[in-house]
Each structure stands twice: as structure tokens, then as C-alpha cells.
Design a protein that fits this description.
The protein is α/β, with parallel strands linked by helices. It is built from 14 helices and seven strands. The two termini are 36 Å apart.
Length: 358
Amino acid sequence: MEILTPWIGEILALGMLLVLNARVFWTRRTRLDALSLLGATAFVTMIFETLAWGLRVSGVAILALSFICVIVNYRSLVRFSQRLFVDSYSIKFFVTSLLLLAASVFFIAVEIQARPVRLQTRLFNVQVEREYFSCPLSQDNFPLKKAREATDKRNLTLYTFSNKNKENQKDAVIVFTPDVLAEALAYEPYFILLARKGWTVLAADLYNLNFKSPEDFSNTKSFRRASLIWSAYSSGGKKAVKEQKFPESRARAFHEIYEYSYRALEQIARERYPGKKIFVVGDSSSFLPTQKLETIFAAARFLNLKDIPEYTTPGYGFVAQTNPIFSWLFFGIKRDKTSFEPSWCATQTIKKLSSRGD
């Protein structure tokens, strides 16, 4: 199956705002203004999108636009709730709606122009599965529990990329923990291309579920990446976001998250793929010291993705494909529909891991 991305929700919300603000051209008197609900619906959609995917530059902009639309259409919402017909649209409201309509069209144009580059899994003979787990961050208690109900605690998201044809599957499983500046889907084209070559990939996003301090809250899915990027930006602007010179400090700050992510992946790989060779790949700060990884993965081979020279955005994933707006704003790298970089990195990953120890 194809995994949904934040872009789908953003386009959906913008589509609702487009109809909301364009309705002044066709809604007439003696009718209930049901379309006035679209502003609030778009705003709620973006709230849920933020909770599901975290704060993003484009998401924040659309959230702000939808909030403004809710305020501007408040009177229309009240009249609809009281089942009153359309009275009239004032000149002020009409002009404001035109401005918001223009903003909606602009945002849609930007979103379409900078849409993520998706590699269709069916064309690459790859299947993707997403699962949720409860992963306690405790040395003394580490039972992974798969979340089956919506009410179950879930702080680990597991993505499995594999070749559909078992004959094409290699005797190799890559476990991958992303840097906290990214999430697993920021590396999606890289994983698909690895799976196309027969390598099964297990990638995990792990977050904190304990809210005992502000630091714990900033380690949640909704805010962790955004808070780290904002911290860098506030200290040194775009240059600081682009360079992120101190992966060692992130490795120390998020050591627990990285370690338990690898431990969870090791347990899942061992149970599901007994007898297969396990390879460990991390990115920048998520690549723990080799001595630590060796205590978790016996006789495994390791690779830090940032050691591949052609990988230009270490720590952030392949943003020229998965988050082109962010890539252009902070790295000056435009959307790359060729996917050359993830393709080259996938080839080099296989080459480096296959040659080590042989």
C-alpha cells in the first residue's frame, strides 16, 4: 500500500478553503450557507494533521490561513447554526473573501509545484506496512506491545519495506533509526529503492510518552523536530539549520530514544527474520558509537548514512524529494524529481555493507 503523507491533508484543507472563499460568487439569498462550515473543518483538519505529523513550515502557514478564515466567517457560521438564510455579503466581507481566495490559490500553486516526489511502490514491486507499538523506555522492562486499538498507547511507529516477490528478497535486513531532525518517511525513496533490490528495511520512529517536564513534551511527535529546527534557526538563522554542526550533542541528548529504537528493531528483526543477516544504518546523531551498537546487534555491520559523500542533507533525510518546501527554504535545493540522490545512496549502502567483513 502507499503510505499517506502530510501533503494529502494540506491539499485537502486548502481545497476546502478555496471553496469557502469562492462561495461568495454563487451563494444566493434564501439558502442556508452550509459552506461556511468548511473553514472550521479545514482548521480542525490541520490541527489533527499537526498532531499526526508534527509542525511543518507549510502546515503552520495553512493552519494560520484556516484560522483567519474561521474568524472572518464567524458571523456566517452563527447564522447557519441558527438555520437562517443568507442575508447578504457586505462589500467588506466580499473583498476579504477575495483576498483569502487569492491566498488559497497561491498556497495551492506552491503545494502543487513543491509536492513530494513519490516513488510508486507498485511500479517498483515493493510493499510497505505500517505498525504501531508501545515501547517502554526502561532498562528493566522492555516488552514491546503491538497497538491494536486506537486507545492503546503507541509511541513507536514501525515501517517495513520489502520486495513483493519472495524470490527477489535477499538474505539481508536493514534496521534504520532516523535522526531526531527527521522521521522515517523523510527517507522513503531510499527505503523503496533498497527494497526494490531485495533488501528488507525496518525503520522506526520512537517518541516519549511521559510528560513530566517541558523537555518530555518537546520530545513528542508533534513538536520534537520543529522545536529542534526552531532552536537552531533562532540561534543562527538558515545557516544554523542547514549546517547542524553538532550531531554529538544530539546523540547525547537523545541517546535513550536512539538506544531503545535500535533495541526494539533488533527484537522485531530477530523474531520476524530468524537466520537473516542484520545490517544497521543510522543518520548523523542516530548512529550510536559502534561499541554500543555491537552490544545490541551481535555480528552485525554498521553504516552512518552521512558517510556517503553524495548525501547532501545529513540529519534531515532526502528532503529534496520528501519535503521540497523545507529543502528550498533552508538548503536552497529545489525539488528533485529524478531521485538521483536516494538512488545513489541506496546503491552505495548495499555496496558498503556487502563489502565489509567479506
